[in-house]
Each structure stands twice: as structure tokens, then as C-alpha cells.
Design brief:
about 260 residues, alpha/beta, Ubiquitin-like (UB roll), Rossmann fold, nine-stranded mixed beta sheet, three-stranded mixed beta sheet, 12 strands, elongated
Amino acid sequence: MKRSETPSGLDVRLMNAAAVVLFVVFVLACALALTRWIASNKVFAFQGITVIGDVSHCNTATVRAHVVSRVKGTFFSMDLGSTRDAFEAIPWVRKAVVHRDFPNHLRVKLQEHQVVAYWGDDSEQRLLNSYGEVFDANAGEVEQYNLPRLNGPPSQSAGVLAAYRLIEPQFSALNLTIETLELSVQGSWRIALVGGALIEAGRGDGEALAHRTQAFLKTLSRVVARYSRPLGALETADLRHENGYAIRLRGVSTLAAANAPTP
């Protein structure tokens, strides 16, 4: 008589392991299906955008109009990085911080560019913000501001702004207003004042420029007073001389200037 065959201990363990694997696969498949259902469910599709922060030039309606077609996905599937890029592509927006508010809202905090100057030559409509960053926006929106025009190599925009901030108080103390500050590709500074005066200010960084203009302005009032002229009579100045500077004044001939003491 034959003995009935029974599974060995190894076979039992293999069957149990296979059952566990199949159960795990089933659970994962269900979880994936549930995740896909939740991610695509219209309940979690974004229904509104709340905009906070700087909105001087970008009101909520404007922001929504720019990004509504670019906000993709639902609360769970939206890519925050690409959504942030969509907000930062709006004119005047420097930085956007995006948060999801459950279950179907988006909250965005905006930081606008704070414009401090025009950038480039007169034909350009680019602007410079308070961080020394060049940006594009409707320059017509800042026509009411009395802004200087700064210019130079694009990589030097922050340095040009820093130099302007150093020398502007020196000129304003004498009621002179800088209209343009320009740094050439060769590293030379040129200053144009409201009223038409042009100053060749030489080479160097912002600190060197400020030192040179300070020495110039310290004696300028006395020099123009010798000819009974106001500061506004200044036409040109050349600060590139090692031990002084050369100036031209409206209403003063070259001969008279040549006979004057060296500044």
C-alpha cells in the first residue's frame, strides 16, 4: 500500500512567499489605481488662485489672466516648479512662492521688481531693479518717476547701480542731478547731468569713481565762482588727469580758462 504524498516544508514556504508577493502586487496595483483616480478627480482640480505680496503692477485679475492656461494638473499632480516659472514670467514679477491649499486652491506670494533706473541706451526700454538686475516691462508705466539711466556691460549692472548709489548723494548735495551713468566696455565711467554737463570720470571700480568725483565736487563751487558762474554753467569736465581736472563753463572763453589757477 502506497503512502499519500504531502508537501515538504520547502514547498509550503515557497507557496506562502508566492501568496505574499501576489498580495503585495495586488495592493500596490490598487494603490496606484486609487492614486491615479484621486490625482485626476475633478474635486481636486484648481478652482481659485489667491495672490498676496507685492501687487502694485500685477493685480489678481492680471495674474490669473497670464497663468490660468499654464497651471496644469490637480492639487496632487501639479508641478510646483513649472507653475512658479509661469508666475515669474509675468512682467514686473521678480519672484513667486507657490503653495497648494487643500483641496483645490493655489496661494501665490509675489515679489515685484522695484524699479530704480532705466537700463541701456536711449533706444532701449529695459529697466533695472533695486538688486541691480535688468528686467523687461512696460517702461511707460514708470514715466512718472524721475529715474536716471544707467548703462554698461550686462554682467556689470549691479556694479553700475552700486557706483550710482555712491556718487548720487555727492551730486545732489550741490543740487546737481545725474541723468546718466555709463560704464564702457573698456571700464571708463561717463556721467551726464541734467542740464547737459558731461563728465569723463576715468577708470576704476565704484569706490575709485566715488573718490574721484568727491575730490572734483569739493572744489567745483570755488572754481566756477571765480568766473561768477553758477554750477549749472558746467559744460564738460575731465577727471582723468592725475593731479587735477579740466572743465569748460558756458560763457567762459578758453583764454580766460587758461589764465585761471589750476583746480
